[in-house]
Amino acid sequence: MINIVAINLLAIIRDRVFHGILVVATLFLFIPSVSSLSMRQVTELSITLSLSLLSFILLLLSISLGATSLWKDIERRYTYSVLSLPLNRSAFLVGKFAAVTLFLVLATLVMGGAACLMVWISSGIYPSERPVVWVNLIACIGADVLKYTMLIAYAFLFSTLSTSFFLPIFGTISVYLAGNATQQAYDYVHSAAAKTLSPVVKQAASFLYYLLPNFSAFDLKVNAIYGIPLSPQAVLLPVVYCCIYTALLILAATAIFSRSEMK
Amino acid sequence: MKPTAGMRKLYIVLPLLVASYLVVVFALADYMKNKPLLEKLGYIPSVATMRVLAADHKQFVASTLMLKVLMYYGSLVDKGPDNLHVPADYPAMSRSIDATLKLDPYNQDGYYFAQAILPWDVGKAEIANGFLEYGMNYRTWDWTLPFYAGFNYAYFLKDYANAARLYRRAAEISGNNMFMSLAGRYMQRSGKTEMAIAYLDMMAKGARQESLKKTLGTRRDAFLQVLKIEKARDAYQQKNGKLPATLDDLVHAGLLRGMPRDPYGGKFFLRSDGSVSSTSGFSFVGDKK
Question: Would you say the pTM of this structure is higher than 0.90?
Fold first, then answer.
C-alpha cells in the first residue's frame, strides 16, 4: 500500500505539477503591494488575498489531479498492467487517493508558508489595529485542506462512474459550487422569507442539504481575517465530518471500481 | 536554401499580422484610457448571485469590488484639473459599497468610504448611517462606526438623542471619554464647525489613499474658512449689537482680511440667521439645499 502511494506521489511530482503551482504561486509576491491599496485594513486585505489565492490553487489541484489521475491511467492503459499485479483494485484506488491527498498537503505546507510570510510582511509594514491571530489563520488553511480532500474524494467517485473526462471535471466543479451554497439554500428555505414555498420543496432542500457536502462549515476565513474567536466545535466538528464523509465516498468509489469492467 | 511557397506566404502574412496587431493594441489601449468614467464601475450582479458564485471567496470578491470603487474615485479626483469636477456616479458607488458589505459585513474599507463620501457629497447621511448601524452588529470592537454615525446624526440629521446614544457607545468601546465631550459641543452654534474640523482631522488621520486625503483636506480647508468667518461674525455682533448683513460688512469693519476663498469654488455668504454658507454647498456637486 505504501508503495502504491509512493509511486503515485512520485508520478505527480514527475508530471511537474509542482512547477505549475510555483508559476501561479508567484502571485503571492504581489500580495503586500496590492494590499497597500486598502484604506484602513491592509493586513486584513493581505490575509484575504493570501487565503483566496491558496484556496483557488488548491481547488485547481483538487479538480485537475483528482479528476484526471484515474482517467489518465485508464487512458494510458497503465491500469491494466498494474491491475494484473497481485494487488486488489481497492488498494490501487485508495493508494492513488492517498497520494493525491498527500500531494495536496505538501503543496499546502509550501504555499501556506508563503501565505503566512506575506501576511507577516504586510502586517509589519502597516500594522493593523487588531493583531493577526495566527492560530486562526492556520486553522483556516487546515480547514481548506479538509474541504479539498472531500472534493478529491468526489472527483475519484466520479472517475469510477465514468471513464470519460467530462463527468469527473464538471461533476467536481458542480459539487464545489453546490457544497458552498447548501448552507445558504437551507437557511433561506427555512427562513420567514420562504413561507410560500411548498412543503415538498422544503423537504427536498433539507434532503439535499444533508446529502451534499457542507463546505460552508470549512470556511473559517472571517475568523482568520478579522481575528474573531474560534470555538473548539467550529474546528472539531468539521474534522470528524470530513473524515466520515470522505470514508463513505471512497468506500463507494472502491465498490464501483472493483465491479467495473475494463476492456 | 530556396524559400518554399509556404515560407514565402509566411514572410508576407507574419509582418502583416504583427503590423495589424500593433495598430489594434494601441487603438485598444487608447480607447480604454479614454473610456467614459461612468462605464468603468459597470454592472454588478445581484448580491444573492454573487454569494453563490463567490463560493468561499466572498471576502475576496468584496475587497475587489471595494478596490474598484476606490480606483474609480481616485481616477475622478485625478482627472479634474485641481480637484473633483467630473460628476461622479454616486448611485453606482453606493450599490458597490452595499454589495461589498453584504458579502463581507466586516469590511472596514466599505464603512470608511461610505462615511467619507455619502453624507458629504451626496447628502445621504441616512444611507451612510444605515451601513454603519448594520456594521456595528459585526465589528463590535470598532469605535469608529458609532463615532461616524453619531457625527452624522448630530451634524447632518440634527438628531441629538441618537447622536448622544452613539457617542456613548463609541466612548464605551474605545474607553475614550473625548467623544462624550465632543457630543456636548454640538449644542453650541459655532461649536458645530469646530466639531466638523476635529472630525475631519480624525478621519484624515491614517487615510492612506491620496484621492481621499485630498477630498478630506479640501473639506477641512473649507471649514477653517467658515470658522474664520464665524469668529469675525461673533466679534462684529459683540461690537455692534447686531448680526452683519453681508460678508462685506466684516471686511469693511476690518474683522476679515479680504474675502475668504471657498476651496470648492463657491462664494461664501451669510444666511439671515447669521450662519455661514457657500454657493458650492461644500461639495463639487454644487449646493443642493
Answer: no
Interval B51-72 mean pLDDT: 89
Number of helices (H), then strands (E), belonging to chain B: the values are 13, 2
Tell whether A43 lies on the interface with B, counting CB pairs under 8 A: no
**Nearest Cβ partner for B56 among A38, A45, A219:** A219
Q: 3-state DSSP call for residue B246?
A: coil
Angle, to 10 degrees, between the axis of helix B178-185 and the axis of helix B144-151? 10
- Which among A178, A222, A244, A182 is positioned nearest to A51, based on CA atoms? A222
Q: Which residues pair with B269 in a beta bridge?
A: B277
| Residue A227 grid coordinates | 481575528
Pick among B49, B59, B216 to test the A interface (most A CBs inside 10 A)? B59
Which residues in chain B are contacts of A177 at CB distance < 8 A? 52-53, 55
A177 touches chain B (CB under 8 A): yes
- Which residues 84-113 of chain B have a CB within 8 Å of chain A? 104, 106-109, 112-113
Neighbours of A94 (CB within 10 A): 20
Asked if the C-beta of A183 comes within 8 angstroms of chain B's C-beta atoms, the answer is no
Lowest-pLDDT range of A148-162, B95-109, B193-207: B193-207
Dist CA A182 CA A246 (whole Å): 18
pLDDT for position B165: 85
Q: Which stretch of A48-57, A236-245, B234-243 has the lowest confidence by average pLDDT?
A: B234-243
Considering only CB atoms, B57 lies closest to which of A41, A52, A184, namely A52
For A104, residues 6+ apart whose C-beta sits below 8 A from its C-beta are A58, A61, A62, A65, A145, A148, A149, A152
d(CA A82, CA A78): 6
Dist CA B183 CA B165 (whole Å): 10
Per-residue model confidence as pLDDT tens digits over A75-122: 776 666 666 666 778 888 899 999 999 999 999 999 999 999 999 999
Task: Please write the tens of the pLDDT for every residue from B14-60.
Answer: 999 999 999 999 888 888 777 665 556 667 788 888 888 888 899 99
B277 phi, psi to nearest 5 deg: -140, 180
Dist CA A141 CA B92 (whole Å):
35
- For residue B59, give the nearest of B97, B98, B96, B101 by alpha carbon: B101
Interchain CB distance below 8 Å, A225 and B58: no
